[in-house]
Structure formats: structure tokens, C-alpha cells
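Question (not urgent): is this output format expected?
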Amino acid sequence: MAGDLYPDHGVTGTENRQYNREQRAGKHEADAALYKSHQCEQTPHPGSWRRHDQRTQGPLVAGYGIYTQGQEILLTFSFCSSLVSGYVITYFPLRGRSETIRLILSDQGAKWTEEEVQFTDWFTANCEHKKQAVFGQLPKFKDGDFVLYQSNSILRYLGRKYGIAGGSNQESALIDMVNDGVEDLRMKLVRVLFYEPEKGTEKYEADLPDQFSAFERILSQNSNGTRFVVGDQISYADYNLLDILHVHLALFPACLASFPLLTAFSDRISSRPKLMEYLKSEARKNRPIVPKK
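Got this back:
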């Protein structure tokens, strides 16, 4: 709707002049209280009328100021982070390839709903979810009317939406590189757990130091391992690395014993307040790493 009323969340000079602040002020006072209660920014700026964009802990908020009772009220035409987002994750009753999506959304203060697809339904000939899936795979991610498949595409989409995809072309490229490295490790684990279980996990576990050493080295090259994998703010690759570390720690509890930076990274990112709340939730605790038998 915002795009129809205000293309590209912009406003022309003609629309500025046509906008009658006195007639609109009373109508929007109640809205202002609502937005304030949802922690949308209010900036004192008497008499102003301007476009105002901000990055919050949630989605990009595009708003328009109106002078009302001595202050500028931020009226938004897109969702504030604490309002219902319209996100839907469609996936199996697992952590799997949807868990990093959940980590991002929870840490960014967004809400979402889960649409679970049972394995027994997925493998039937008439499964609608499978028919609709672009590449015959899940997860499926909905942002309002927008639908996206492929887990890493979803991560990159959320990375751009929440401003956690790098502050420059170089940072974005490095974040992609780390995320691809996590994907390589995830695929090796998936092969062992789901496609070659008869071979056992002993060799895989023995080879883990070689796998983790690359990530330990990457961390050491950014603020001596005290921050994130790239730059000075969190990225979608940090969440993906955190998830794969959580999975390995659950399966191989001593796997990080020789990796102090990865251990500290896992503890540090997991302790972010909103993320920690999700990690302690019953939904997270009840969601298995591998299918329940």
C-alpha cells in the first residue's frame, strides 16, 4: 500500500504543499501515541515536514513528519519492528536450514509464524508445498506477499533488509565468503547425518579441527576475535556460523575445546538479549536437530 501512495517511500514538493498539516494533526494524534508505544522514533523538530528514514532493530521504517503540539511525530507507512511483520517460515519440524533465519529475526526483534510440513506429507505424491516449491525444497519464506526459497538467498535478503550484509562491497564479499564456508561445513555434516549414517561420525569428528581452524583464523583477523567475522557489526554470516556451532556443540560437546575464539564468539553472540530469549524459548528447545524417530 505504501508503494501505491508514496512510490519508493518518497514525497514530491507538490505533495508537500498539498498536505494540510492542520487538518491532519488531530486525525494522527492517536496514531502518534500508538507509534510511540511501539518505540518508533520521535524527533523534536518544530514546523518540519520531511522524509525520515531510519534503521531500527526491525525492518527499515519509512515515515513522514508532521508538526503536532510542538513536536514532530513520526508517522510510518511501513511496519515498525515491534508490529506484526507478516513473516512466515514454512519448514519441517526441525532446526535445519530455517534456524539461522529464526536467529536473525529474533535478534532483530521481528515476529514470525511457523508453518510446519510433516515429512509424511512431504513425501506423498500430492503434497502442495512440494508442488509450489520453486526447486522442490524447503524452507519457504514469506514477507507479506513476497515469497522466497533457498535458505542462503533468504539469509542474503534479510541481510540487506536489516542492514546486516556489510557496509561496503568488500565487507559484503567477505561476508558472502564466510557464509559459503559455513555452507560447505553444513553440507559435510548433512551428508554424514542423513545420507551416509552407516559410516558413523567418528572420522567426521576427527576432521573437525581442520574445518574449525579456518573460522578461528578469520575471527582472529578482525579485532583479535573480539567482535564479528567481518567488520564492526553483526552480519547474517555471524548468525549462520553461530547456528552451525550450536549444532556441532550439541552433537560433539568437546569440539571447540581447542578453539578459544570460536568458543568466545558462540558465547558472546548467544548472549545478545533478544537472541538469548529465543534460545531459551520452548519452541527452540523442542525443535530437534535431526528428525524425531
